[in-house]
Specification:
Elements (H helix, E strand, L loop, with lengths): L15 E3 L18 E8 L10 E7 L21 E2 L2 E7 L2 E4 L22 H26 L18 E2 L8 H5 L4 E7 L4 E6 L8 E6 L11 E7 L4 E7 L2
């Protein structure tokens, strides 16, 4: 039985739309991003902060097969301030995302066909991983359509997992993503004796990103980050993702 004060996120929360159409997620000239990023849900962000308005989209990258997303193009001129290893940023344009940088950030982007493998079998391994995860995601979507339940695999009964782990609130300043790859951020100590702190990544203009939602990527596929963390910078309308691995 769920505590009355604890949200049951195995049910679709108010303001959330699971599995939005890619046309509603990415700007029209970047729909190919759906080859590299699965839209998990759209969220009315006024449910997180009543001072905000609009809809943001939770995304799960298909990279990595191993390591971090973006790691395979780290030295190929495809990274930038909001697009670097383990960090992916977007500009919100009329409710849709535009990547803040070069889409060749994703190693399997068609523009990278001539890139040499950074290590033996890197491309072949990642192509197999993509195929497996596209198939797993499609199966999850179909289970949801027929049952209304988010479940990673078939079964009778289905084992429901949470659509989201956290909406809004503070993020753990001791999480692995905080130090995995250097990124400008403001860390606020909440309780020095216990080591508790909150983290605000910073935009190129120095504005704070605020936590919107977090969810394990593997809730929606057979593989994914242990936690996808989504942030929002409301002044410029920027969205930022990072990924935690235990």
């Amino acid at each position: 039985m769920t505590d009355d004060h604890t949200p049951d996120f195995s049910k679709v929360p108010t303001g959330m739309l699971p599995f939005p159409p890619v046309e509603d997620v990415f700007v029209a000239d970047q729909l190919e991003l759906a080859n590299h990023l699965h839209p998990l849900f759209s969220l009315d962000i006024s449910t997180v902060n009543p001072e905000w308005s609009g809809v943001l989209h939770m995304l799960s990258p298909l990279e990595p097969y191993e390591g971090f997303v973006g790691e395979l193009t780290e030295w190929d001129g495809c990274h930038g301030y909001l697009l670097k290893t383990n960090w992916i940023g977007f500009k919100v344009e009329q409710g849709r995302y535009r990547l803040c940088g070069d889409p060749r950030y994703f190693f399997l982007h068609e523009g990278n066909a001539q890139l040499a493998d950074p290590h033996p079998e890197a491309r072949a391994d990642l192509e197999r991983h993509y195929a497996d995860q596209h198939s797993a995601f499609a199966a999850t979507v179909e289970r949801f359509k027929t049952s209304g339940v988010l479940a990673r695999e078939d079964g009778e009964p289905l084992h429901a997992v949470e659509f989201v782990a956290q909406l809004g609130g503070e993020v753990d300043g001791c999480a692995n993503w905080v130090e995995a790859v250097e990124f400008p951020m403001h860390i606020v100590e909440l309780d020095p004796d216990r080591g508790d702190s909150n983290v605000y990544p910073l935009s190129p203009a120095g504005n704070r990103f605020f936590h919107v939602a977090s969810v394990p990527g593997w809730h929606y596929r057979t593989a994914g980050a242990d936690m996808i963390v989504m942030f929002y910078e409301p002044i410029e309308g920027l969205v930022l993702f990072t990924f935690d691995y235990s």
